[in-house]
Amino acid sequence: MSKNSKKDINEAFRLAMRRFASTISIITTTQEDNFYGMAATAVTSLSFEPLSILAAVNSSASLHKPLLESKAFCVNILKTDQTHQCEIFSSQDLRSKRFKEGSWKSGHLGLPFLEGAQANIFCSMSDSINSGSHTAFIGLVKEVHIDELVDPLVYLDGKFVKQLDSLKSSSEAPVSLEGIDWLW
User: Fold this and answer.
1) Partner residues linked to 4 by β-bridges
2) What structural domains and CATH numbers belong to the chain?
3) 72-to-32, 82, 173 alpha-carbon distances in Å
4) Residues facing 138 on adjacent strands
5) Ranges of H-type helices in 114-179
6) Is 65:73 a contact under the CB 8 Å cutoff?
7) Residue range 29-86, pLDDT digits in tens
8) Neighbours of 47 (CB within 10 A)
9) What is the pLDDT of residues 120-162, one digit of tens each?
10) Which of 29, 31, 143, 177 has its CB 3.0 to 4.6 Å from that of 122, i.e. a possible disulfide?
């Protein structure tokens, strides 16, 4: 393998990350009676003790400053039939529709959550870590709502993945992979 230029590495990294299948979430917060939110794939579980989650947010995102100041957020994990919500929360042009479309409620700490989402995870912020263009927000999990149906909206290679039939079938036993550090 030849030595790559910075431009080549950036493009290769972008393509590699497109191959990383991710669920799509809407991260929300509230500040001074206003709701803020954005669609994200950079969300992951972090620790079981204490129960925590990590969400990476671009410092130029409209959510960034309110999130830093509010010290609380909700991760709304979307279902396959919620692609429209993802599109609304991904577009600056549709920003005025963000909390007007869909069934939005106020939950723990007054945080907005999308009723009918795959799951809603309410967090108080324990830390924020600046890293280049993004900030990693670490949230301590305070409350969780779960929907019965396992039907996550997945993003892969620049598009939504609609067929996850194997996830919907509960007849198979979970796979045990010894030696791998699985959080759950």
Assistant:
1) none
2) 22-158 (2.30.110.10)
3) 13, 24, 36
4) 54, 127
5) 165-168
6) no
7) 999 999 999 999 999 999 999 999 999 999 999 999 999 999 999 999 999 999 999 9
8) 14
9) 999 999 999 999 999 999 999 999 999 998 899 999 988 898 7
10) 143
- Select the more confidently predicted residue: 4 or 81: 81
Give SS3 for 16: helix
**Which one, of 95, 69, 83, lies nearest residue 162 by Cα?**
83
Distance separating alpha carbons of residues 82 and 141, to the nearest angstrom: 24
Residue 55 to residue 46: CA distance in whole angstroms: 10
CA separation for the pair 182, 184 (Å, rounded): 6
Give me the residue label for tokens 């796979």. 175
Helix H or strand E encompassing 13: helix 6-18
CA distances from 11 to 6, 19, 47, 131 (A): 9, 13, 31, 20
Q: How far apart are the first and last CA of the chain?
A: 36
Q: Count CA within 13 A, CB hemisphere, residue 59.
A: 8
Distance CA 74, CA 88 (A): 17
Q: What's the sign of the alpha-carbon dihedral 96, 99, 100, 102?
A: positive
SS3 81: helix
